[in-house]
């Protein structure tokens, strides 16, 4: 673990913090914007899902670009786009303009979802890959929780709402500055026949001896230099691709929907002190993410995924069955769900890069993030309508069914990838 590893890790962490903050802050300011912008229910849903829609297109399109032109360029320039669009939200007093800016922010973040974990997985020592990739979700949670706390305890006027939206430019700018000078992935260079450059990167940035660097680059050089997008669905790879899309989507659909509209859920549950309960749930989210790093590192990917899906399914099913109980009774399974979901989400940064070889990794991770963001956007758009028309019980019931589907898919198809040894990390 070198200082360079720490730098790459920090800038990738910063990207996930920015994403969590951007997605959390819109939920915090939407109640005020609904009044000042005279938003309809449709516009509320669109603004809540806007960054997620952009994430879909950014992940799908730019993940493929990362495999074709390299990781480093997108890793740097996507945050130029994010910083500018985030700052511009200060002047966005029309819902259409705000929606378009958040689409752009999501598009840039989508690129980072495809490129960030990919680049980090190709630089990180294998024995630390799980904890480093899993920590990305913890930083996402930190950004999200901070946005929620600011939204809860800062008196939000229309002007304050736009300041909060624009404040996302600050972490984005810091990430951009830290990323200047980070080199291309040596695994990608070697796979493209540029073994000499790859060995130079390994020696200079990873502190490897000349013999080790050259041997590692030669091993990566033996992989196919490029792969067509359709190879994600070819024999031998298709099962991993579709499993990844299904498990990722099933996990994040209720996650984003519930935590974007947590205040609305708490009000529907008739919680008297909703602000305090909101804070408690956010702290459980943060604590669960940190504690959840340990089982991600120690357990296999398959048992961790199956076990957490089962617990989450039971929690939301309990909320559905107990929907007529008092709000304090409903808070018990809600707290357990929040804690476990935060830890379970760590696997979404670990599993995807391990499901694909180097030549397909950017495309594959981008595809999984993109499809999962479709599910997130659908859940975020549908949940407020469901809560108003069906209530907490039925809303939690259909989301429990989504998690049950994730459990079944994981039981049937989840591979074990914890000890997968790829060409780019065999020397560690």
UniProtKB/TrEMBL annotation:
Q: Which UniProt keywords apply?
A: Membrane, Transmembrane, Transmembrane helix
Subcellular location field: Cell membrane
- Where's the Major facilitator superfamily (MFS) profile domain? 8-418
User: What membrane topology does this protein have?
Assistant: Multi-pass membrane protein
Q: Which InterPro entries match?
A: MFS_dom, MFS_sugar_transport-like, MFS_Sugar_Transporters, MFS_trans_sf, Sugar/inositol_transpt, Sugar_transporter_CS
Quote the Pfam families the UniProt record gives. Sugar_tr (PF00083)
Query: Any stretches that span the bilayer, and where are they?
Result: 21-39, 45-62, 74-92, 98-120, 132-154, 160-182, 242-267, 279-296, 303-322, 328-347, 359-383, 395-414
Protein family according to the UniProt entry: Belongs to the major facilitator superfamily. Sugar transporter (TC 2.A.1.1) family.
Kindly provide the name given to this protein in its UniProt entry: MFS transporter
The taxonomy runs: Bacteria, Bacillati, Actinomycetota, Actinomycetes, Kitasatosporales
């Amino acid at each position: 673990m070198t200082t360079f590893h720490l730098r790459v890790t920090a800038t990738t962490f910063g990207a996930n913090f920015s994403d969590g903050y951007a997605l959390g802050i819109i939920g915090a300011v939407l109640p005020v914007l609904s009044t000042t912008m005279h938003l309809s229910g449709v516009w509320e849903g669109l603004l809540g899902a806007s960054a997620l829609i952009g994430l879909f297109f950014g992940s799908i399109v730019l993940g493929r670009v990362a495999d074709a032109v390299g990781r480093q360029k997108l890793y740097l320039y996507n945050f130029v786009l994010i910083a500018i669009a985030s700052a511009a939200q200060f002047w966005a007093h029309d819902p259409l303009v705000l929606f378009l800016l958040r689409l752009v922010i999501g598009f840039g973040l989508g690129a980072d979802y495809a490129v960030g974990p990919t680049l980090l997985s190709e630089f990180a020592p294998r024995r630390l890959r799980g904890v480093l990739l899993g920590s990305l979700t913890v930083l996402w949670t930190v950004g999200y929780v901070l946005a929620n706390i600011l939204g809860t305890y800062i008196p939000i006027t229309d002007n304050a709402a736009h300041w909060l939206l624009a404040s996302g430019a600050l972490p984005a700018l810091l990430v951009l500055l830290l990323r200047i000078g980070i080199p291309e992935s040596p695994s990608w260079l070697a796979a493209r026949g540029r073994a000499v450059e790859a060995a130079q990167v390994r020696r200079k940035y990873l502190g490897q001896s000349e013999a080790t660097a050259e041997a590692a680059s030669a091993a990566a050089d033996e992989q196919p230099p490029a792969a067509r997008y359709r190879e994600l669905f070819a024999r031998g790879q298709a099962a991993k691709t579709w499993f990844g899309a299904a498990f990722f989507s099933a996990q994040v659909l209720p996650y984003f929907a519930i935590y974007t509209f947590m205040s609305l859920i708490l009000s529907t549950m008739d919680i008297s002190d909703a602000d305090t309960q909101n804070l408690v749930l956010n702290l459980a989210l943060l604590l669960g993410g940190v504690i959840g790093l340990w089982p991600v590192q120690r357990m296999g990917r398959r048992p961790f995924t199956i076990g957490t899906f089962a617990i989450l399914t039971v929690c939301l099913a309990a909320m559905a069955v107990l929907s007529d109980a008092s709000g304090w009774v409903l808070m018990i399974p809600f707290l357990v769900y929040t804690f476990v979901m935060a830890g379970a989400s760590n696997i979404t940064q670990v599993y995807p890069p391990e499901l694909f070889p180097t030549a397909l990794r950017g495309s594959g991770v981008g595809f999984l993030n993109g499809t999962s963001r479709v599910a997130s956007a659908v859940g975020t758009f549908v949940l407020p309508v469901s809560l108003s028309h069906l209530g907490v019980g039925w809303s939690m019931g259909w989301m429990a069914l989504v998690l049950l589907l994730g459990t079944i898919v994981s039981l049937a198809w989840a591979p074990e990838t914890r000890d997968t040894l790829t060409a780019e990390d065999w020397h560690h």
